[in-house]
Known about the structure:
Layout: E1 7-11, H1 20-26, H2 28-36, H3 46-56, E2 63-67, E3 75-82, E4 91-97, E5 104-106, E6 112-115, E7 126-135, E8 146-153, E9 167-172, E10 180-183, E11 201-206, E12 211-213, E13 219-222, E14 234-242, E15 252-262, E16 270-271, E17 275-281, E18 289-296, E19 306-312, E20 319-323, E21 329-334, E22 345-354, E23 366-376, E24 383-384, E25 402-405, E26 408-409, E27 418-422, E28 432-434, E29 440-443, E30 459-463, E31 482-483, E32 488-492, E33 511-515, E34 526-530, E35 538-542, E36 547-552, E37 564-573, E38 580-592, E39 598-600, H4 603-607, H5 614-639, H6 675-678, H7 682-685, H8 714-726, H9 755-759, H10 777-791
Amino acid sequence: MQRDLWTSLLLVWITCVPYSSMALLNNQSQSLQMVSAMIPRNRPSEGQRILSRAKRGWVWNQMFVLEEFSGPDPILVGRLHTDLDMGNKNIKYVLAGEGAGTIFAINERTGDIHAMKRLDREEKAEYTLTAQVIDRDTDKPLEPPSEFIIKVQDINDNPPQFIEGPYKGSVPEMSQVGTSVTRVTATDADDPVYGNSAKLVYSILEGQPYFSIDQTTAIIRVALAGMDREMREEYLVVIQAKDMGGHMGGLSGTTTVTVTLTDINDNPPKFTKGSFEFTIPEDLGIGKPGGRVKANDRDIGENAKSAYSIIGGDERDIFEIVTDAQTQEGILRLKKPLDFESKKSYNLTVVATNIRADSITGGPYMDQTMVKIIVEDADEPPVFTKSTYLFDVHENAAINTVIGAVAARDQDATHSQVRYFIDRHTDLERQFNINVDDGKITLAKPLDRETDMWHNITVTATEISRATVAIKVLDINDNAPEFASEYEAFLCENGKPGQVRGHQTGPVIQTISAVDKDNPSQGHMFHYRLEMLNNPNFTIKNNLDNSISILAKHDSFRRQKQDTYLLPIVVTDDGEPPMSSTNTLTIQVCSCSREGNVQSCNVEAFVLPIGLSMGALIAILACIILLLVIVVLYVTLRRHKNEPLIIKDDEDVRENIIRYDDEGGGEEDTEAFDIATLQNPDGISGYLPRKDIKPDLQFMPRQGQHSGPNGVDVDEFINVRLHEADNDPTAPPYDSIQIYGYEGRGSIAGSLSSLETASSDSDQNYDYLREWGPRFRRLGELYSVGESDKET
Length: 792
């Protein structure tokens, strides 16, 4: 009989907050109803499933709800079960779809589904999977696949964030309480539908009591009236957004809002002084400025601009005032010329009025001040009593006849004396003269009416005024300070640290002062420093009287090491701009007495105590060096000179003295020499040149016979060497293989040579050598033969 296979899913509820389980339980009925439309048609109806529920014991559901979690332990999502699973091990549950095998895993035997990785609703809210039961052996499906959904339920794991922060806002100063400033917005990545995870509440952490914020709309408003921009222009407000409706346990985020108070015209202009006074010369040109007044305004921009006007004291309409657009000053100018003689001063009333109206009352802001103008008398030219004079004279008038007189007066208050002159350009023939003091015109040459009936001349009147002008040249800081004198300091070799000797004797610290050619009104103030900031030898001390003292840092000064030190010192004045110069102080290292008195400060006195000059010392050293060179050359030539190595006659007799430091052990002594040297097979055929003599002819020895591979015949080796030595024409007849070409030195017993006995006539008997044994028998025979040859 064919049986329908149904999958039974056990719904597993995982709750992290107390109230989430109730919300899920309320949705269970909705899940079951939603599934009914998704069941295949050949399956039992809703009523049939309910009836069979008690019989078969299974529940069919097509949706799991699982809260997001961060792991790391796996969490059970649900369980699959079929009626075919009667404990038969051939049943195998398989899972396919989104996240199958990676995020979700199924137990092949029990049908348990586990979430293996972190689930984040903000990344993916639900997963669609397919479950099926297959035969474990044949992998053939035992029932159709069933599709179900795993929905990730949100938890509060994301704090609110201000994406557009930090914010800036502005509001006019003196705004009313409740005036809107700006609005901030925070976002929460949690689910806004489920729970209160994304329900935000706004509050102010910093910025009270000046501002407030609406908890829901996040609109920032003015909370304090009368905020003045001139007192404080900028405020920093810290806003907090908290989820979970602001309840405890909710997450929060903050942002900052910089609120700037904008300016309004709430301050009147104010003159810097209650009254101004200007002195204007009476000859000031029309339109020229005669003075400036200034009214300050605490506002900024257009609210600080003012217009100036004269409202009193200018009845003659002589002055006008205009506004400087750059400096906002009122410039007083002339509309008509001034006359000192008619009016010497004016008292004007000047008003400064804001261009913009008062933002609070609507009326204009203004301020007024008094301006006193003193007219200064100018040196005006004399004025003639008439502009044109007419005089008559007879043509026969005598010379020096007074024709008439002109008169001019000085309009200045000083009434200086007037002098008169004729413009000679109008009297080229010099017909007339004028008295410079009283203006009387006299005849200088005879007149002829027939020639010239009219003479038009021009008379000039000038003032006589004298004044002594003293011009004083003002000083500026254009000279750098320098040492007051050429200082030269002396330092004792045995001086203590901190002491530098001056040119006087005694323990006086060297004092340095400076002078400046400039003459500032406040006097000089000099600043000293070493050019090398960390000078290892010297330092300076400020004496607080525009001078310094030079101090030594140690007491290890030696003339033979360095006899003179150059110490650069930078001196700067306090002028504007400051001037500086670098001056060098010369410090000599000297030899001093115990009392500190300077004895000698040069190197010659230290090196030549016997009174030799430096030139004489150099000459002596040169002679010594020349003699040493000659001796070295002579010795070198002597060493390279060739000497004959072969004895040419019987008189040239030499003996080799072999010196030993220890006594021989006889024939039983086997440690006095290395037998391995004689057994070296390389030594048979190798030729070792003699180092004790320099042969004139190169003798190539013949090759010796090699021994077998097992060793060397010592007797044969010695015979070969003996044969080579006997046939070598360059070698004397030495009896020893190890020879010396010179007589030994340093013997305590003295020389053993027989040259001295041979040179003398004394007779020696060598027969005692034969009595010493067989070792000295050969030596005795040689000396006996020499004696017999001598006798024959």
